[in-house]
């Protein structure tokens, strides 16, 4: 037992779009912030006069220390010259561990204000995480943060716990990708995990390009200021910052576009086609710079990409995603494929408890549409039931909530991978302790 009830564990769910962190036993995470990191290279400070003594790898590490990382909504909201916005996780794989550390630091030290030495950590991980990645995470947690105990839990299992089920099919649609994982008795059935690169960010990009093709240009917040000409009357003045990087401009545009997506988009009841949706009533949306735009068919077309990825090719400016459009499969097909890879005995149970989780899954009408498509395509004997928490917050944070429930259970306390075990057996032991 590690400290019993006095010390609460910390649960961290680092997703491809946002990082969620908080105390086990609570019903929502305390800290939620973007999992991208702003990076400014400070190479210029190098004194050119110094002779290059240690060339090669030494020079690279020197260069690495020279970049300054900015984490959190506030730090990223402030525009800096030549700040690149870099993703920490791409296709479920960590791209840069230094950035992961900066995110954990921000979550633990700046947001939760805790000393990691005093709290066991429960980390959520993708269902298809590789052994190498798991060992690296364990090593960092024990060596750098000196945590007393650690547990790595699969996203899908935690979502299952959050809804109080031991067996379910978890459809987790997040920012970077959509993963479908069957969970049986609290374990992920690895051979049947399916994933597709279509997630919230891709839908946001589709929306930006669709609007651009109709002449609507989303101005990032830093690119204008409002000036009062007469009392109560404002004029928007554009400001030009030539030093802004392309990645920061896109990041700022995506924030606005994803808000548009959350406010007005909804999954269409039937597969999208241009003719039936061409004369649909428009929905107004006011952009931060004061202009009001009208959004019509795009409200339905963008979400339908989840069901029919080939729609990406019909959006001007999305040509670079042609390979995704041709290779990715729609949600219903992926669900059925995943269930068919499972044992015959549990297929009925999986069909009747399909759980939706993730930020993208909280889109309006998504549950109803998925249920309808599955009813048409699944075997007659299957009783299809798609479950989703009525509360959008719970859907977005279901992985974190599952972790919070798990780490606060009394019966879980002997499952922790402790520091002494780590010192005795090394990082590889994580495979045995956290199946």
TrEMBL record:
GO terms for cellular component: cytoplasm; nucleus. InterPro entries: Actin, ATPase_NBD. One of its GO terms (biological process) is chromatin organization. It is found in: Cytoplasm; Nucleus. It comes from the Eukaryota. SMART domains: ACTIN (SM00268). Residues 41-66 are annotated as: Disordered. Keywords: Chromatin regulator, Cytoplasm, Developmental protein, Nucleus. Involved in several developmental processes including organization of plant organs, flowering time, anther development, flower senescence and fertility, probably by regulating the chromatin structure. Belongs to the actin family. ARP4 subfamily. PANTHER family: ACTIN (PTHR11937). This is Actin-related protein 4. It comes from Heracleum sosnowskyi.
């Amino acid at each position: 037992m590690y400290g019993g009830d006095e010390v609460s564990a910390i649960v961290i769910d680092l997703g491809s779009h946002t990082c969620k962190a908080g105390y086990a036993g609570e019903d929502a995470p305390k800290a939620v912030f973007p999992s991208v990191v702003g990076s400014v290279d400070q190479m210029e400070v190098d004194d050119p006069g110094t002779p290059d003594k240690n060339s090669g790898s030494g020079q690279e590490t020197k260069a690495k220390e020279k970049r300054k990382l900015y984490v959190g909504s506030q730090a990223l909201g402030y525009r800096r010259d030549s700040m690149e916005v870099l993703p920490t996780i791409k296709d479920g794989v960590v791209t840069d561990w230094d950035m992961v550390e900066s995110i954990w630091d921000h979550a633990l030290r700046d947001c939760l204000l805790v000393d990691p030495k005093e709290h066991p950590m429960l980390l959520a991980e993708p269902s298809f995480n590789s052994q190498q990645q798991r060992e690296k995470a364990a090593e960092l947690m024990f060596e750098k943060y000196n945590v007393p105990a650690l547990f790595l839990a699969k996203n899908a299992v935690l979502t299952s716990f959050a809804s109080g089920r031991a067996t379910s099919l978890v459809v987790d649609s997040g920012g970077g990708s959509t993963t479908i994982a069957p969970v049986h008795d609290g374990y992920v059935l690895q051979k049947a995990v399916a994933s597709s690169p279509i997630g919230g960010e891709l839908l946001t990009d589709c929306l930006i390009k669709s609007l651009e093709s109709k002449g609507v240009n989303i101005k990032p917040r830093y690119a204008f200021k409002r000036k009062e000409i007469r009392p109560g009357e404002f004029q928007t003045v554009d400001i030009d910052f030539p030093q802004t990087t392309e990645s920061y401009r896109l990041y700022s545009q995506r924030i606005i576009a994803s808000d548009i997506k959350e406010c007005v988009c909804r999954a269409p009841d039937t597969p999208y086609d241009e003719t039936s949706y061409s004369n649909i009533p428009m929905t107004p949306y006011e952009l931060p710079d004061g202009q009001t735009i009208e959004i019509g068919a795009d409200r339905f077309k963008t979400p339908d990409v989840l069901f029919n990825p080939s729609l990406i090719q019909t959006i001007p400016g999305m040509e670079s995603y042609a390979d995704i459009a041709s290779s990715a499969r729609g949600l219903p097909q992926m669900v059925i494929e995943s269930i068919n890879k499972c044992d015959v005995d549990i297929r009925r149970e999986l069909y009747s408890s399909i759980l939706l989780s993730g930020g993208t899954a909280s889109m309006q009408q998504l549950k109803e549409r998925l249920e309808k498509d599955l009813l048409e395509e699944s075997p007659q004997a299957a009783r299809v039931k798609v479950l989703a928490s009525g509360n959008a917050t719970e859907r977005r944070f279901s992985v974190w909530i599952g972790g919070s429930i798990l780490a606060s259970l009394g019966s879980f306390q002997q499952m922790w991978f402790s520091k002494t075990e780590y010192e005795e057996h090394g990082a590889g032991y994580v495979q045995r302790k956290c199946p």
